[in-house]
Design a protein that fits this description.
By secondary structure, the chain is α/β, with parallel strands linked by helices. It contains seven helices and 15 strands. The protein folds into two domains: 117 residues, Response regulator (Rossmann fold, 3-Layer(aba) Sandwich), CATH 3.40.50; 87 residues, LytTr DNA-binding domain (OB fold (Dihydrolipoamide Acetyltransferase, E2P), Beta Barrel).
């Protein structure tokens, strides 16, 4: 995964160094390691692609709060945790991590997590077209609509029709993409207005079904 930039949130020095060494052996650049969540939230900007977050951190800001910030930034992340308390795990699950690395972890655990991260770190959605493979930048995608065995990818440059199931393409999208209807996935960063049963994105209305209303919260 050469070229990928990651940050680590871990308040145990040995664990942080162990994880850093494993990630660097996989050609990942560690931009920074944070022992407290407050240190990260106080920054104006930081260039990174993904994060590894311990649920329990030193200071008042825990890993779940950091994960919520990752969702706002559209950054995929992995939890590192020794916490098996059901209430904590339930809260953590609602922040949509790519996966969990249980403590104590080993190199195999980390490699498995990286394989799951790969499609989320990609800069664009890869599709096979009539003229060969192409990549659609995630930031240009407004929403994706299912139409039987086809999907309509609505972008800032127009609409692209592609033969693929919506549930298949969902696995290739980063965390800023949210399913709001059985037939629609939207780029949360592109939402202009939220109404009770619909969204407005670039002048187009997208329906929101009752079963997905909590996603928008």
């Amino acid at each position: 995964m050469e070229g990928v930039k990651a940050i680590i949130f871990e308040d145990e020095l040995f664990t942080a160094m162990n994880l850093k060494n494993i990630l660097e052996s996989q050609k990942i650049t560690i931009v920074s390691t944070f022992y407290q969540g407050e240190d990260f939230l106080s920054l104006d900007t930081l260039d990174f692609d993904t994060a590894f977050i311990d649920i329990q951190l030193a200071g008042k800001v825990d890993g779940i709060e950091i994960a919520k910030k990752m969702n706002q930034l559209g950054k995929p992340f992995v939890y590192i945790t020794a916490n098996t308390e059901s209430g904590t795990i339930e809260k953590a699950a609602k922040t949509y991590p790519v996966t969990y690395i249980p403590k104590p972890f080993n190199e195999l655990n980390v490699k498995i997590a990286l394989e799951l991260l790969k499609p989320k770190i990609s800069k664009g959605l890869k599709i096979n077209g009539q003229t060969g493979k192409r990549e659609i930048n995630f930031d240009s995608i407004l929403f994706i609509k299912s139409d039987d065995v086809y999907i309509e990818i609505h972008t800032t440059d127009g609409k692209i029709t592609h033969r693929q199931l919506l549930k298949e393409v969902a696995n290739e999208l980063p965390t800023q993409f949210k399913r709001v209807h059985r037939s629609y996935i939207v780029n949360a960063n592109k939402i202009d207005k939220i109404f009770k049963k619909k969204l407005l994105i670039n002048g187009e209305e997208v329906p929101v079904s009752k079963s997905y209303e909590d996603v928008l919260n």
